[in-house]
Write a structure and sequence with these properties.
Two copies of one chain form a homodimer.
Chain A: E1 6-15, E2 21-26, E3 37-38, E4 41-43, H1 50-62, E5 65-78, E6 83-95, E7 104-110, H2 125-133
Parallel strand pairs in A: 1-6
Antiparallel strand pairs in A: 1-4, 2-3, 2-7, 5-6
Chain lengths: 137, 137
């Protein structure tokens, strides 16, 4: 009994030296979740490892170099033709200033306790609610 | 600043028609976690999607056909040369009786509230503790 096909997307909670997290505001012209505050990251290309894909997406979307640290959690989104599973990592900012691509129109460094108040895509709300309540390591 | 390389492994909580979960006891001769109760699943081959990899591993390890449903959570294991991230799904048994490979020497269908009492590999203990406390959908 084959179910709906799955797709894997990788996202990252990037922390700066002050412990704040980077969110990216999706362009008003985005096909999905226009104007919402998104996590950096995206789809994995065929034959690309998830960590390479994530570093590439972060570089394309923000120009930043980061180091991936730990796994942070998951999210899920049921689209008409595919079920997207999000693997969410934690990363640390290494160097650079944010330079946005046309995909996003704004960025913000957000305190952990302010994360749940941001207007996020619906599929990330359960994750962010749980994540923001976790004790900081 | 490149960190330790990552590897992605996929695991699954397979439920039977009575809501019990399948665990597999690793062979006494296993290089790692010998004799521990493991979740079905394993490594993703190059250019293999995570869901195909998981169905293949389940078939190889148990002979079972399953349907993948939702994402269940994550786990992490720091090995000397690599950091393994586990993406854990939920699945439903379709058909078949368990036929073990040489990798495992026993299997058990376990009630949700009995999961935390099983002797699991250390990296799955936080996930199982949290998972067993979740309300059943």
């Amino acid at each position: 009994m084959p179910g709906k096909p799955f797709a894997l997307s990788v996202k990252v909670m990037i922390q700066d030296e002050n412990g704040r997290y980077l969110l990216l505001k999706r362009s008003a012209s985005s096909k999905a979740n226009a104007g919402k505050w998104d996590l950096p990251g995206g789809k994995i290309e065929p034959s690309e490892s998830f960590d390479k894909a994530l570093l590439r997406e972060v570089s394309e979307e923000t120009g930043l170099a980061i180091t991936l640290k730990h796994v942070a959690g998951t999210a899920e989104s049921e689209l008409p033709a595919v079920k997207v599973i999000y693997l969410i990592l934690e990363g640390r900012l290494d160097t650079g200033n944010v330079i946005l691509s046309s995909e996003h129109e704004e960025f913000a460094w957000v305190e952990r306790n302010e994360l749940p108040g941001m207007d996020l895509p619906e599929q990330f709300i359960p994750f962010i609610r749980q994540y923001s309540q976790k004790a900081v390591p």
